[in-house]
Automatic annotation (TrEMBL):
Substrate binds at H140, K144, E178, D197, K302. Residues 2-149 form the Glucose-6-phosphate dehydrogenase NAD-binding domain. It comes from Candidatus Accumulibacter phosphatis. It is an enzyme of class 1 (oxidoreductase). Residues 151-449 form the Glucose-6-phosphate dehydrogenase C-terminal domain. The gene is zwf. GO terms for cellular component: cytosol. Belongs to the glucose-6-phosphate dehydrogenase family. One of its GO terms (biological process) is pentose-phosphate shunt, oxidative branch. Pathway: Carbohydrate degradation; pentose phosphate pathway; D-ribulose 5-phosphate from D-glucose 6-phosphate (oxidative stage): step 1/3. Its EC number is 1.1.1.49. This is Glucose-6-phosphate 1-dehydrogenase. The keyword Transport does not apply.
Length: 464
């Protein structure tokens, strides 16, 4: 592994710096971590100087020769996005994008642009020097085990896939909550907001895994094509729809578990009059036969009560109440809860007869927790994604066209917010967002699920 950057370091200094981080990230692999450190190398260059990339090429090819391995190269750009075009072009100018002597792949992190126009321009610049099959646009949400398990859960279990449509599903909600504020990302976040930072990529990618049709084959081409079809079916939010379908908020000062929390505008590095959104709730529809007239509700925010990401599928109520009013809880719907983080797992809620006289229906649950697999370690997102990239498997990476489709859907929301016409509702830090978010979903006769009935570890860990 060759680290490349502006910081003047030699191999020994770089290894020492990386070795100090390994106990945190690879504590379960002490022997492998110790063997990994000597394989780390470093090259200091001016990343804006095309001639400097010849040094990178010579260093990479020299290391390959020492180890007797092909020139297979994965270039991971952990840099500001505005440097992607320059660095990718410089790599290409040194023939580090040609595959004759081994494969060459380029990994870029989000954000992939700031809007549709910039995303298209970024794709154009990258594709000027690299083929689409060489580009890997990484989104760590797709590397999460429970997000991938959505596909297996649906398509390996006919009992659920047969119910996965508008005949049986009433509505779907996707929640991604964080208890933290902006922390050290004030500059970036204030220029982006939660819709750009989370909805355009993470939440829409999770939605695609929920709504996707079964692919003809479980390979990268088929899965990515079906994912693209979901994004193509997103119903455009017209100007008249925005106020009825989108709620934006910003957290205000409050006391959370005895600790005073500052308002967003009082956070270090945030302008006093900032209108950046730290919360968003949205109602959207897919113009798709499978999901005809089924609303999808997205909810995402900072300074909410805890950290939790989950998908909740609400099934329709029985058309005829077999037990009448005597059933008591029978009116409750069946819910399928897919917890992405933390306490990863799946929970199915349904009704059973309560012991005793009469037919009183009691809600009960069947659940599965990954933590129950005591001998199985759930890999980190980047572990899976980087291994896939090395293997040439792009299934869990975003296509350029898919990225553009997501931006084309989100652009009207961002334009509405930036025009100053969108209301920005305040909500106390530590709450579940502004009351208007409840009104959004309740107007349809639906309700948010408020997760984390049990909060462990001082209120920070949300149990399924």
């Amino acid at each position: 592994m060759l680290g490349v950057g502006r910081t003047p370091l030699d191999d020994a200094s770089f290894r020492q710096e990386m070795a100090s981080a390994l106990p945190r990230f690879a504590a379960h692999l002490p022997a492998e971590a110790a063997a990994f450190v000597p394989l780390l190398h470093y090259q200091s260059i001016d990343t804006g100087d095309p001639a400097a990339y010849e040094q990178v090429k010579q260093r990479v090819y020299g290391l390959c020769a020492e180890l007797g391995i092909p020139h297979n190269c994965l270039f991971y750009l952990s840099t500001p996005p505005d440097l992607y075009p320059k660095i990718s072009a410089c790599l290409a100018a040194s023939d580090l994008n040609t595959s004759g002597d081994g494969w060459k792949r380029l990994v870029v992190e989000k954000p992939f642009g700031r809007d549709l126009a910039s995303a298209r321009e970024l794709n154009r610049q990258l594709l000027a020097e690299w083929r689409e099959d060489q580009l890997y646009r990484i989104d760590h949400y797709l590397g999460k085990e429970t997000v991938q398990n959505l596909l297996v859960f649906r398509f390996a279990n006919e009992i659920f896939d047969s119910l996965w449509n508008h005949r049986y599903v009433d509505y779907v909600e996707i929640t991604s909550a964080e208890s933290l504020g902006v922390e050290r990302r004030a500059g970036y976040f204030d220029g982006s907001g939660i819709v750009r930072d989370m909805v355009q990529n993470h939440l829409l990618q999770v939605l695609a895994m929920v709504a996707i049709d079964p692919p003809g084959n479980f390979d990268a081409t088929s899965v990515r094509y079906e994912t693209l079809k979901v994004f193509q079916s997103l119903r455009t939010l017209q100007d008249a729809d925005l106020a009825r379908s989108v709620v934006l908020g910003q957290y205000a000062a409050s006391s959370v578990r005895g600790q005073e929390m500052a308002a967003y505008r009082a956070e270090p590095g945030i302008p006093a009059g900032s209108r950046a959104d730290t919360f968003a709730a949205m109602r959207l529809f897919l113009d798709h036969h499978r999901w005809f007239d089924v609303p999808f509700y997205l909810r995402v925010g900072k300074r909410l009560p805890t950290r939790v990401t989950e998908v909740v599928v609400h099934f329709r109520k029985t058309p005829h109440p077999a037990f009448g009013v005597r059933g008591g809880a029978e009116a409750q719907q069946n819910h399928l809860i897919i917890r992405i983080q933390p306490d990863e797992g799946i929970l199915l809620q349904f009704g059973l007869k309560e012991p005793g006289a009469g037919f009183h229906v009691k809600p009960v649950s069947m659940d599965f927790h990954y933590s129950d697999l005591a001998d199985t370690r759930v890999p980190e997102s980047y572990e899976r994604l980087l291994l896939d990239c090395m293997s040439g498997d792009a299934t869990l990476y975003a296509m350029g066209e898919a990225v553009e489709k997501c931006w084309s859907f989100i652009d009207p929301v961002i334009a509405w917010r930036e025009s100053g016409e969108a209301p920005l509702f305040g909500y106390p830090a530590g709450s579940w967002g502004p009351r208007e978010a409840d009104a959004l979903i309740e107007a349809d006769g639906h309700f948010w699920r408020y997760p984390c009935q049990n909060l462990a570890s001082g209120g920070e860990y949300c149990e399924l």
